[in-house]
Amino acid sequence: MAAPTSSKEPPSTSDRRASRKSAGQTNTNAKKDSKRASGVRNTKAAVMGSNDEEEGNSDEVSDSEEQPAKKKGPRKRNARKRAKDYDSDALDDDSEFDEADEEDEEEPRKPKRKRANSGKQDKTHSPRKRRRKANKDDEEDDFDLKEGQEVVGEVVQAPKTGRVPPGQISKNTFDFLQKLTDPECNDREWFKLHEPVYRLAEKEFKDFVDAFTEILTEVDPHIPPLPPKDVIHRIYRDVRFSNDKTPYKKNLSGSFSRSGRKGIFACYHVSSGETLLAAGTWCPGKNELATIRSNIARSSDRLRQVISDPEFVKLFGEPKPMKDGGRRNIFGAEDELKVAPKGFAKDHKDIDLLKCRTFAVVHRFKDSEVLAPDFKNKLGEVAAVVRPFVHCLNDLMTLQDNDGGDDDEDGDDEEI
């Protein structure tokens, strides 16, 4: 009896092999895209299902597909479902696989987390380059003022015209010092805005002092060739014990002595602004003043001879006090005593010298003389005239006298 035949013929062996081959390739691509461990396991299951179909156990494979699967997480269920699709007989239909691939592509990838700083600092530029970059950024950015701040003014740059060679004084320096005589300009805000102008004047005066030092050391061998920084005075005033609280001097000055601008010795003092050359000692200490007076009381011949020299008188005036109290020669200083100092008689023959507390002379120059190229040579000529006076004062301060002065006189008219 012939076996009944089915109207639908089963797929041939070659078709099944081709279908399995296509399913394996698709499964491999899916595994690379998903990169999940569950995909690897499902692929193995799909391969096992393919081997069962080779042995003709298609019914058992379909039965195993119908068995209920264990509950798993969402990701595992999706992978399991995809594996089932791979094992079905409808592997010829590519639409399901395309949809699965599109889902994988639409799933957003998590951005890679940046590695934490391992402690190595970023490569930085040199400090000079950083400052340049900061200055450039400051120029580009708008200047934002904080609460309570305000724009004071614009910084005035140093003049580029009217400059002179080293060893001379320019009109620019005169103009700057002239402005400091105005109380509105002699304050810290104005000075800060004009600091470039001051720095140029300061450098110019240093060069002048350096050039004049060479001349002065030839005129007076007792003066050492010191650098300008040991000779020039600061422009800032000491206002602690003064009623005048203006912070800056109105001149640039320097003092030349055996010990520079400091020390007890008589010196040559040069000042620009109201330009002058002064020589002597200003307000010497108590011990030095007592020694000078003691030596004058013993013998004043040398000092009187020096201040009476014709060249000296021509520059500084007659060696006599003025009746109206004005300044002439070494007399008429602000700190001069009105009565005899303590320890000396009122009628002492040298009472005019003994009343002095400052022993100094001053010679002033015209602006036209200061601006001349040979001004330092003219200063040297005046220094040569006052050199004997400076040497005499240094000897009077340092040579001790064992002889006593006249008898002391008590009274209200005695001063120190």
Automatic annotation (TrEMBL):
UniProt feature, compositional bias: Polar residues: 1-13
Organism domain of life: Eukaryota
Region span, Disordered: 1-148
Bias type Basic residues, positions: 70-83
Biased composition (Acidic residues): 51-66, 88-106
Pfam family, one: DUF2461
This protein's name: TIGR02453 family protein
Annotated organism of origin: Lentinula edodes
